Amino acid sequence: MAQWDTSRYTSLFISEATEHLEALSKELVRLEQGEVTAEAIDSLFRHAHSVKGMAGSMGFEATTALGHKLEDLLDRVRTTPTRFDRGVADLVLQACDALTAHVKAVAAGQPFPDAAPLMAQLVAATQSMRPGTTPLPFKENAAPPLVETTPAPESNLPPRWLISLKVSASSAQPGVRGFLAYKRLGSLGNLFRCAPSLDEVKAGKLQGGLFAVELETTETEANIQKTVSQVADVTLVSIEKVVAPPPVPAAEEARPESSPGDRVVGQEPQRTVRVKTELLDEFLDLAGELLLATAGVREAGRTLHEDARSQLNVSVDRLHGLVRGLHDKVMEARMTPVSVITDRLPRAARDIARRRGREIELIVAGSEVELDRAIVDELNDPVLHLLRNAIDHGVEPPEERRMRGKPPRGTVKVSVRRASDRVLLEVEDDGRGMDTERLKTIAVERGLITAEQAKDLPERDALLLSAAPGLSTATTVTDISGRGVGMDAVKRAVEQVGGTLEIISKRGVGTTFRLSLPLTVAMVNLLLVSVGDDVYGLPIGKVAGVVETTRATLAHSQDLPVLQFGQAVVPARELSALLGVPARLHDVNAACPFVVVETDEGRVALAVDALLGQEEVVLKALRRPLDKVRGLSGVTVLGNGRPVFILDVARIDAPAPHARAAGGDA
Amino acid sequence: MSKRVLVVDDSVFMRDIIKDIFAAGGFSVVGEAGNGVEAVEKYKELKPDLVTMDLVMPYRNGIDATREILRGDGKALVVMCSALGQETMVMEAIEAGAVDFIVKPPRAEDVLAVVKKVLGEG
Amino acid sequence: MRHVIFLVGKDRYALPLDAVREVVVAPDRYTRVPHAGTSVKGVMTLRGRVVPVVDLARLLVAAPSEGQPAGGKVVLLELTRRDLGLLVTEVEGIEPIEQVDRPPHTTSRLVRGLTRVKEQAATVLDLQGLDSAVASAFATE
């Protein structure tokens, strides 16, 4: 085994091996559903081979041995694809899981789990498969498939330069200027990674006129400089050679020990670096705090003399623009494709369906759509849960489906798409649908709603009862409603990231769960209101309007004050009472602003002491113990350094023990 | 020897302004054209060091004319003259091979700065 | 083991030094936390971070202390990825504590035991008990 220090490659091993194993399991599931082709099995083989090779390079003997056995089996399958059946597929998946467990053990610094029985099974399966007699077309290529395509040696690539440019602020058409510079550089070689994107450069949307691009060229540095100098209004801020990414140990056993790092696995068309996700979180925190700090400087400047203040404000405006740009870039870097979630689904669907005796076709669409990493992280479990419910309780067993005249194989479709500034994620099944009457009955039985309420409950609200805490945990509902337990957790998780859950269902036809999600969680536009001595933020998106009126003129319905808003009448509440905070003494005959907000229960007018204005702020998530506080969805820090809570408007009118109606006390 | 410039614009007024700027800057304007077709002909005939090209002109617009000129002479230096609001067209012209642009109404120092840079004198 | 010694009212308390990140002067005002229990003072900002602060006097005696004098110190606990501050009357210093005696009859899960610091009695607080008491002070039904 190699004598060099492998520890610095550990994290790379973990991430790459995991990718291979995920791809292996994913491709295997796909293969089971489609045609078994030589190419497909070849690809499985290559993944196993890669993992084995990498483990070998790292000196992980147990992993190497296991990988080797899997490789042997897949090699045998290659020669007799007709022998590839469910049993073999199961075994391959088990081996894949075992290898994944090994990789996790590496990550956790724990000993490798024992895989001896599994290895024996792999050997037995391999031996039981006799080599085929007819050579397969892909076998005619005598050379065994290699893990990596031999990459061009580093020295053959032209050098790459990171070039930062500044478009002069006085330029008449900065976008065109930037584009011209870009084009000129492009004439020297190949351009990569324009930041901000070329579209933003063309639109002239550059913070401080700055942008950067990487150029791969054989031209000299002097020539690059000369080219830039020939573009008016554009100056070269910096130019530096991009350091080649560190060489990665190649996945081959027979590698000379003397040169451990002189080969590169594969070749990335676009260079990327792996960044720890915690680091991205910290970047976002810091960028957010920079924004706040900038607001703080502006605030401090208010005390200055007018001349000095306007000078300061010019700089603060510029600083704010730059920081905002930085913040946007960090947000962009955090954007993660939904495939992180959806890639796991085929395997999960297969396992659930087999366990439950269902036949399922899973269709996944739109997994390339991107969302903030924080949202993707939060959605992993809920989406899996929706899938499990769809298969477990939505789709009927094959015989039942036949009886109902449906194809025996049920379809579950997970689709993701952008809709303006939201992302819609849908989990749709063609199963039995939900029984809203039964849901209502049980909800009444459990005292969640009254019989009266049940009668008038609109369809969509009735369906959402399945996600009510008291109901979704009731096991009796599981099969009646066609929904399983834990729907309340799904709803909560979706709302936690600023999304909404909608259920569409038709009995006998199927059910769709629609998650409407924001792209990012970090910035929010607030209406700041004061109540007593406190200031609170209401997300503008949830504010329907503001009505100024006196408490004395409020109408009453069933003894509770209501406010005329547009064509409708909405309940009026004291925000102080809803939050359980001291109110200022108020005169019922004095005008008071009522902020009409959209809650889960419909519109509600909130009486506040004053409107303090609108502000775009950086949302901070609530951490323990603040996340336990009812009625809050986040917190932010204003320019004056004061923390302000952002209210969970959707649930602000949820029944609270001490909620009082507006106009009750004066 | 002073550099030879061809000025293309459908407005005589604009051509005069540009010509004056070049004259003051020590360039010699060797020809003028009022439309794209004429521009291509004049270019072939005069082989100037540099062309200033209006974007919107009758018969043949500046982008097509630029393309045509570059087809005949890959090293031709064509500088577009554009107004604010024509950014997209200018970028199209740059895609077509124009080396730079000036914004109308032209200011002497801007025009000369751009032209000198393009000619490698800046 | 070294402990941070501080006063709550006139009583002396101790927390392990490695449980304390820093001590800061209490802010003039806090932002109120809706629905929170009376022992929750509110939140303050510290270098851009939002830190919940609990009035230790109220948490310990579970009754309103006689008009907490203005000022005091906030002891910030060392917790992973979150912040928590304890409002105390004054911080006395750092002292080594070797022996902690379990109180004869445990009165509170907040208390780990009793000890003596420079000939004076001090109550050593239990970090986990403290943490769960704080959590329930914030959690509203």
UniProtKB/TrEMBL annotation, chain B:
- Keywords (A to Z) from UniProt: Phosphoprotein
**What GO terms in the biological process aspect are recorded for it?**
phosphorelay signal transduction system
Superkingdom of this protein's organism: Bacteria
**Does the UniProt entry include the keyword Phosphoprotein?**
yes
Q: Which residues form the Response regulatory domain?
A: 4-119
Question: Signal peptide location in the record?
Answer: none
CDD domains from the UniProt entry: REC_CheY
Protein name (database record):
Response regulator
Coiled-coil ranges per the record?
A: none
Residues recorded with modification 4-aspartylphosphate: 54
Pfam families on file: Response_reg (PF00072)
- UniProt source species: Archangium gephyra
What InterPro entries has UniProt attached to this entry? CheY-like_superfamily, Sig_transdc_resp-reg_receiver, ST_Response_Regulator
